[in-house]
Amino acid sequence: MTDTAGIEAVFLTTHNWGATARFFTGLGFVLDFETDHSSGQLRAPGGGPYLFVAEVPADEEPQTQVVLRVPDEDARPGVEFGDTHYGTREAVVRDPDGRAWTLQAARV
After folding, report:
1. What superkingdom does the record give (predicted)?
2. Which of 11, 87, 92, 104 is the most buried (most CB within 10 A)?
3. Using CA atoms, how far apart are residues 100 and 74, in angstroms rounded to an integer?
4. How far apart are CA 54 and CA 20, in angstroms?
5. CB-based contacts of 97, cutoff 8 Å, min separation 6
6. Nearest partner of 42 among 4, 11, 14, 86, judged by Cα
7. Contact between residue 48 and residue 63 where contact means Cβ atoms under 8 Å apart
8. Torsion sign, CA atoms 10, 38, 81, 43
């Protein structure tokens, strides 16, 4: 199994996309893009992982998901990657305490 290449992204869900986007831009993040369904991507000016924030209904609890970059999905035997609607390949694995971690590789 090869090493991960670090943190690719942090996915956040929120009850208020606008307020959350303003919070992060107030911390220095820059809006890369905003979708027409209350979500968008932000980046820190110095680089590093991106933040993707999506609004969810009030009855859903906001969640945080850390996404780890994997340079070569084929080097991970037994881990099944699937295509995402946003152009990557992802798999979910669990650590010894049962936490879910998302692995993301470029679509080839």
Report:
1. Bacteria
2. 104
3. 20
4. 9
5. none
6. 11
7. no
8. negative
* 2: confidence class by pLDDT, cuts 50, 70, 90: low
> What's at 68, amino acid-wise?
L
Domains belonging to the chain, first-starting first, are 7-106 (3.10.180.10)
For 18-67, the pLDDT digits (tens) are: 999 999 999 999 999 999 999 999 999 888 899 999 999 999 999 999 99
- CA–CA separation, 75 vs 7, rounded Å? 18
Residue type for position 20: T
